[in-house]
Specification:
Organism: Pontibacillus chungwhensis
Subcellular location: Cell membrane
Shape: globular
Pfam family, one: Na_H_antiporter
Helix content: over 70%
Largest sheet: none
Family: Belongs to the NhaC Na(+)/H(+) (TC 2.A.35) antiporter family.
Number of domains: 1
Number of helices: 20
Main location: membrane
């Protein structure tokens, strides 16, 4: 292990980001009162101003190199395509048709379980938990109004299913970030991650069945158009077949446009407008990703990453301890950023260093990053997921926490996987 202790002051930009973002949320009671880009920009300025021994132009150039790193740019392109696909598919009624198709065939006493499963399927297909919650939360509220189940339980089921897909989807930004930072294959990470969290999904379904057994409902879903379900099925099949993520998303966009034209009066003008609005909806995440890339590059150059690596690993005595440190690092970072993708991007290289040092399989390190970031993201009341669900349900995000079974259980599954050394790989990933 490198004995260089690094420079703790290099982490000042991250501290400033945390204080401004979290502090303003606590003071105002709204963690999205100011754009997350504001504390990010202030942190970026501080990062550039540090290390006075170097000329400013050189530091700005280093920041730009970090912001424009190939991994960052690839993720930006994927975010653009994911936003476009989500917008076009939603505009042609693909989400409504997919949801109503499932609701039509669900037994009444399994309606909440069905909501969890549907949310998982849609999130797995779309690769976005927030998009899934935005689409399903109104339906979940409607279900609670027509049953004896609380809106908090119904919405928490949506959030849980959405986090299931976010954690596993091959086109999810968190999965992409985890795979790219750990230098592993998408399909290999999916298999490893899936078997770790499978018990959590099963236990969540059991808990929901127990809580809702004997319930009655009068849900009467709207009619669905089977043709409009095809875009999601196509994207899911293409992704699972191992096709390039960008190709899958482009195909999904074109397929949605064609089906929209066949099944209704969806025009080329509407198609282009939806693509534009979808891209715009991802703008904050895109800008934040670029800025964070620059900040992390400066922190690394000034010795901050080395300080974290030294602090994180100095007490490690085993491979299990190293895996636990990866989980703790990404979880702590996610608490600060309230964004699981950014948390993975920020800690990914450090996690890779730890994984290499302690011979942790890259499939396992990628899975740990994704699992523990999604755990925190699904539980923090100032995260986009709970805020979105709570706003639609006119509840406080805190009210959803007692029913947030899946995010809690995937943390338990991840901890168990660390303690028992699961899965056991026959051969380390190349």
């Amino acid at each position: 292990m490198n004995t260089n202790k690094g420079n703790p002051l290099a982490l000042l930009p991250l501290g400033i980001f945390l204080v401004i973002f979290v502090g303003s949320g606590i003071i105002t009671g709204d963690f999205y009162y100011i754009s997350i880009l504001i504390p990010a920009l202030l942190a970026a300025i501080v990062a550039i101003l540090q290390n006075r021994k170097k000329p400013t132009f050189e530091k700005v150039e280093q920041f730009a190199k970090g912001a424009g790193h190939p991994d960052i740019m690839i993720m930006v392109f994927i975010f653009i395509l994911a936003g476009a696909f989500s917008s076009v598919a939603n505009s042609i009624g693909a989400v409504d048709s997919t949801v109503n198709l499932a609701l039509t065939y669900l037994p009444e006493n399994l309606i909440i379980v069905g909501v969890f499963i549907i949310a998982g399927f849609i999130s797995l297909s779309m690769g976005t938990s927030v998009g899934t919650i935005s689409a399903l939360a109104p339906i979940a509220v409607g279900i609670s109004a027509e049953t004896e189940f609380s809106a908090a339980l119904s919405l928490a089921a949506v959030v849980g299913g959405a986090m299931f897909g976010d954690n596993l989807s091959i086109i999810s930004d968190t999965t992409i970030a985890a795979v790219r930072t750990q230098k592993t294959e998408m399909k290999d990470k999916f298999k490893t991650n899936f078997f770790i969290v499978l018990p959590a999904a099963i236990l969540t379904i059991i808990l929901l069945i127990v809580l809702t057994s004997g319930g009655e409902s009068s849900v009467n879903p709207d009619s669905f158009n089977g043709l409009k379900v095809i875009p999601y099925i196509g994207v899911l099949i293409g992704a699972l077949a191992g096709l390039n993520v960008m190709a899958v998303l482009i195909g999904g966009i074109l397929l949605s446009g064609v089906i929209g034209g066949i099944s209704g009066d969806y025009s080329l003008d509407a198609f282009m407008t939806n693509i534009t609005s979808g891209i715009n909806s991802m703008s904050e995440l895109i800008f934040l990703t670029i800025i964070i890339g620059g900040i992390v590059a400066m922190i690394n150059q000034n010795g901050g990453i080395q300080f974290l690596l030294h602090t994180l690993t100095k007490g490690i005595r085993s491979k299990k301890g190293a895996e636990g440190s990866i989980a703790g690092l990404v979880a702590t970072t996610n608490l600060a950023t309230a964004n699981n993708t950014i948390a993975i991007i920020t800690t990914g290289q450090l996690a890779k260093n730890v994984a290499d040092e302690y011979e942790i399989d890259s499939r396992k390190s990628a899975s740990l990053l994704d699992i523990f970031s999604c755990t925190v993201q699904g539980l923090i009341p100032y995260g986009a997921q709970l805020l979105t669900a709570a706003q639609i349900g006119e509840l406080s995000p805190i009210e959803l926490l007692p029913y947030s079974f899946y995010p809690i259980l995937i943390a338990v599954s991840g901890i168990v996987a660390i303690l028992v050394g699961f899965p056991r790989f026959k051969k380390a990933a190349a």
